[in-house]
Every structure is written in structure tokens, then in C-alpha cells.
Amino acid sequence: MFVGHYSAAFALKASQPRVPLWAMFLAVQAVDIGWALLVMAGIEKARVVPGFTAAFPVDLYYMPYTHSLLATAAWAAALGLAWHALRRGDGRAAALAVAAAVASHWFLDLLVHAPDLPLYGNQHKLGLGLWNYPVPELALELVLLLGSTALYARTLPRHARRAWTLAAVLSVVQAAHTLGPWLMDDARAVAAMALAGYLAFAAAAAWAERGSAA
Length: 214
Fold this sequence. Notes:
The protein has eight helices and four strands, in the order αααββααββααα. By secondary structure, it is mainly alpha-helical.
């Protein structure tokens, strides 16, 4: 899953306005940011395999430190505790929201991945495989994204226009990602591009909130 992850960011931000939207954008992609760094470092493993799934031709065959359920739970706990320590004034609910944002990644990935999501270590892998059905997969991502954007815009109307602009850009990127040609043949290049995208979208989320208090 790609932009569908941001549905959790918009929804949780609506419930906890003290947490910046850019932080929620980073939280929902935290394990993928870790994955990108570990793949580039050669610690976790992936390979481009044309046709591996119809929408995402990358075999994610070794990612125990970021995408196992146990590891995701550890990331969520660590980042939630870090948020509480650094921004105690936001309250426990805000820290729990950050932790929930991190944890949401695994469960949303479960819908689209091939069976490559371990429960722990590199064992007992799960995945419902919606990446093999590009049009339904794209529809799911967009429904999640646009529904959560509507909730965010209704809760924080002063940010609605920029939020919808951001959602429109994300929708176009998702459509190109799902339906467009695949141009990369190196997993480290895929990881580097993904990392750049996550950081750019977090910056765009900061722009979407700029100009008035949340």
C-alpha cells in the first residue's frame, strides 16, 4: 500500500489536532522509511522481479526488522514513547495516536502485499495479495485516502483547501504508480525513490497545515 497509508494520518490527526500532520505522515510510513534505509544498507533484502505482482513487481523477501508484526509493534511502542517524552504537553492520547499511526502500516499492508509480511522474524508470512488486481487495489487506496481527507477537512475546515490539494496530488501519484510502466530494475533505487517520496509528502503535509493554527 502507498497513499492509502495516509488515510490513517488524516484520520488520526483529526482526532488529535495537537500532533502535526507532517508528523502523522512520517509515523504512518515509519516502517517503510526504516525499510528503505535498511535495504540501501544491505540489511533487509528485496529484488525487482517483473510480474511478481501486477501492481508492484518487487519481491520483498527479507524484511524482519521493519515489516514483521512483532517489529512493527516495537516501532509503534518506541515512537509513541518518544513522542510522549519529547512533547509531554500533547498528552498521552497524542502519543497513543502516533503509536497507532505507526502500527496501522502493517494492517493496511496486509490487504495488498503478497504473502511477505512475517508475524515475527522472517517466518509465518501473510498477505492478501490485492497488488495482483491493480484496479481494485487503486480503488481501495483512493477510497481510504479521500474518505479520511473528508473527515480531516470537516474537523479542521481552515485547512480543507490545502488538504484536498494534497489528496489530489497523492491520488495522481498513486494512479501513476499502480497503472503506469515500471522503470526501475534495482531494489536499492526503489528504496531510495520511496524514501525521497515519503520525505517530500511529509513536507507537503506541513505545507497543507501552514497559515493557521491546527
